[in-house]
Amino acid sequence: MSIYKEEKSGTWYVMVRYDNWKGERKQKCKRGFVTKKEAQDWERRFVMQSSSDMNMLFGDFVKLYAEDMKSRLKENTWLTKEAIIDKKILPYFGDQPINQIQTRDVMAWQNEMMRFRDSKGKPYSATYLKTIHNQLSAIFNHAVKFYALQNNPAAKVGNMGTEQRKEMLFWTKNEYLKFADVMMDKREYINVCMSIKFKSG
Fold it and tell me: 28, CA 20 to 30 Å: which among 108, 133, 144, 188?
């Protein structure tokens, strides 16, 4: 048994041995649990994480995902992903075992995201809905690719938003020539004028 009570403080601590990703034998100690059950829960979750057991909670897997991905991404990119995970994904899936999350769970989450309205009654944009779904799917894909999760339920359900294509506006040749005629005596704008695209016509 690796759970002990500290006589002086009355709290519990866990001593656990595990093999790291290099196959090296390591030991970890975690102190300060108020109850024995809290210590046991932490030990069970830690063992699942260190052995990549897909019975682990989704929230625990996200910690592994963060360890794997954080150093591979630019800081701002990771902070954006982290904010989406913390605010839009973990509150819904965090306490569920990752291998028990079904397509119906993902659909229920999508419906909740699509029903959301802010204080002004505005829903999330289609682009944002697509972004948060993609992040959920990326976590599942990571679990499938590197940790032997059987499937990605988010991919089976499919996305819930679309990227909004921004319209590209072009000048006609006549519009460009009028603009260029007015601007030609302003030397600092000549380079800008020369780089503007227009459609023939």
Answer: 144
Helix, strand, or coil (residue 15):
strand
- 162: which residues sit within 8 A by CB, 6+ positions away? 126, 127, 130
Of the candidates 53, 139, 142, 54, which has an alpha carbon nearest to the alpha carbon of residue 88?
Answer: 139
Give the DSSP letter string of 55-97: TSBHHHHHHHHHHHHGGGS-HHHHHHHHHHIIIIIHHHHTTSB
Give pLDDT tens digits along the chain (201 positions). Answer: 588 888 888 998 888 887 665 567 878 888 898 999 888 888 877 776 666 668 889 999 999 899 889 988 999 999 999 999 999 999 999 999 999 999 999 999 999 999 999 999 999 999 999 999 999 999 999 999 888 888 999 999 999 865 545 555 666 777 767 666 666 665 555 555 455 544 444
Element (DSSP H or E) covering residue 86: none
Look at the chain and count its residues. Answer: 201
